[in-house]
Amino acid sequence: MSYKQCLANALNEGTINKKQHDEQLELIDNLERTYKGQGLNPTEASIEAAKKAYDTAKIAAAYKKRNNRLKIAAQQRIEVNLKSYRNAKGEEDYASALKAIFARDDSATLLV
Questions:
Q1: What angle do CA 67, 112, 68 make, to 5 degrees?
Q2: What DSSP string describes 19-82?
Q3: 107 lies in a domain?
Q4: Which residue among 70, 78, 108, 110 has its CA within the 20 to 30 Å range from the CA of 89?
Q5: What is the pLDDT of residues 30-88, one digit of tens each?
Q6: Domain limits at 72?
């Protein structure tokens, strides 16, 4: 089964969306033209283009997953800082906590 057929199946199954499908097909077509221009025969160019497109998609997915995890970790850290912050009177003060987080209040004891 060709990579293009796998993409069509993934689109039909809902594993990828239309935008991802179209981007992958466009990348494959561009890579095939490039490889043909470098002297590969059409079959080899198609195989190499599919491999490169798959690797590119795999790397993009890993990068997106990493970024999402970093966002979640940052959100959790901010939430802990908001809940643990106390003003000079020992009271919860979310406004001052936000100010301390984003304006770098050096006197505040926050998790960084």
A1: 10
A2: HHHHHHHHHHHHHHHHHHHTT--HHHHHHHHHHHHHHHHHHHHHHHHHHHHHHHHHHHHHHHHH
A3: no
A4: 78
A5: 999 999 999 999 999 999 999 999 999 999 999 999 999 999 999 998 888 888 888 77
A6: 3-102
